Amino acid sequence: MTSWDPAALECLAAIVEEGGFERAAQKLHITQSAVSQRLRALESQVGSVLVERTRPVKPTSAGRLLLKHAKQLRLLRADLAHELQELAPQTGQSLAGEIVSIAINADSIATWAMTALDELVRSGLPLEVVVDDQDFTQELLRSGQVMGCVTTLSQALRGCTMQPLGAMRYVAVASTDFANEKLPQGLTRKNFNQQPYLSFNRKDDMQAEFVARCLGLRNVSLQHQILLPSCEAQVRAVRAGWGVAVLPELLVQPALQAGDLVNAAPGHALAIALYWHCWNLESRVLARVSQALLHKAQQLLQVA
């Protein structure tokens, strides 16, 4: 059986996570030359190039496999540190350095996921949360960059488990002044494409999907979109009259109740089912993360 040098694997992980050799050296507290030497040794052992020398550096197919292996070793070390801490607290075993990486969509972070992770982080779990659109977080799991993800995709990847979290309800909102001036009857087939919409990024098609379902249309293409990659910033922009946003009801409900925002499509909501995927490993640390997310989701999300 081939034995992989743990230091070289951590070096590869650092290069990919930090996006380059110089920052990897700073993270590992070694020279940049040492980083290059460890990577070359690992590539010689594998017989394949492991990273593409782009900016930022990206792993090759072989690199992604070894990156996943490096993160699995981190998880095993985190489990060991956790168990030793329980058996012998006086030894001062710490999880520091054994970062557990997960991917969560921005809407979940803005509404329910942060409170789900509170206790874990306070207990000392070194957590890395990677943010992406809910339709794309699974690719981070597939490539080995994270150990678990919240996604809209229900099909489990090979070597992973899947558990349903529930459904997030989305509603279309606008400021009172904007709605009175431009949407006196709410969103309609006649006026929907005259409005500016707030979107997270170019991959975000939530607004178009909402409008299509709300108005019974097909292949909606919105003409005027403002890209703003933050749920909280979108709420502020809507308050300021920038346009219409389709946002989680959990996030905007207080503003709707207070009359600060109005529902631009009363009686209509878009329910998006979410799922938690993670590596199929016997890991107490990963199990705690899974249980925390599932418990909070069951409290706040709808049954899908």
Nearest-angstrom radius of gyration? Answer: 23 Å
The number of E-state strands comes to 11
Structural class determined from secondary elements: alpha/beta
In terms of DSSP E residues, the strand content is: 15-25%
Tell me the overall shape: elongated
Taken in chain order, the helices and strands follow as HHHEEHEHEHEEHEHEHEHEEH
Distance between the termini: 45 Å
Count of individual helical segments: 11
Helix content: 40-55%
Q: What is the arithmetic mean of pLDDT?
A: 90
- Outline the low-pLDDT stretches: none
Largest sheet: 9 strands, mixed
Could you characterize the architecture of this molecule?
The protein has 304 residues and is α/β, with parallel strands linked by helices. It is 46% helix and 20% strand. It is built from eleven helices and eleven strands. The strands form two sheets. Strands 3, 4, 5, 6, 7, 8, 9, 10 and 11 form a nine-stranded mixed sheet that branches. A two-stranded antiparallel sheet has the order 1-2. Helix 1 (6-18) crosses helix 2, helix 1 packs across helix 4 and helix 5 (106-122) crosses helix 11 (284-300). The protein is elongated. The two termini are 45 Å apart. The model has no long low-confidence stretch (mean pLDDT 90).
State the gist of this model.
The protein has 304 residues and is of the alpha/beta class. The protein has helices at residues 6-18, 21-28, 32-46, 61-87, 106-122, 137-142, 176-182, 206-215, 231-239, 249-258, 284-300, and strands at 51-52, 58-59, 100-105, 127-132, 148-151, 160-175, 197-199, 225-227, 244-248, 261-263, 270-279.
